[in-house]
Amino acid sequence: MAKKMQEPKEATADQQTIEKAIAEGRAMIDQGSSKIDAAMAIYRLLEDQPQETIVQAFQTGATLTEKGALTYWYNCRRKLAKEKRANASG
Fold it and tell me: Residue 75 sits in which domain range?
């Protein structure tokens, strides 16, 4: 079976979004923000990306370890879902 190729535009747009999220996280860390605040900013930009991509962005952009990044991914995912539920009901 032939493997379906992804359009170059999509890959470029995704990569640009990932780079933007990492840069935003690093800027926040440099300005003295907490790692969770930086991670949440990254997560909001990348929430539709695969878990591995977000965890890697957390490691690079929010200066987290691999285990810390995975924990923050889980926590950010829960927090954003809770915020969305609150906004939908109110």
Answer: 17-89
Q: Is residue 1 part of a domain?
A: no
CA distance linking residue 42 with residue 7, whole number of Å: 24
Contacts of 24 (CB under 8 A, 6+ apart): 38, 41, 42, 45, 61
- CA 66 to CA 20: how far, in whole Å? 20
37-51 pLDDT tens trace = 999 999 999 999 999
Encoded tokens for 83: 């915020």
Which has the closest alpha carbon to 26: 45, 11, 51? 45
Q: What is the pTM of this model?
A: 0.84
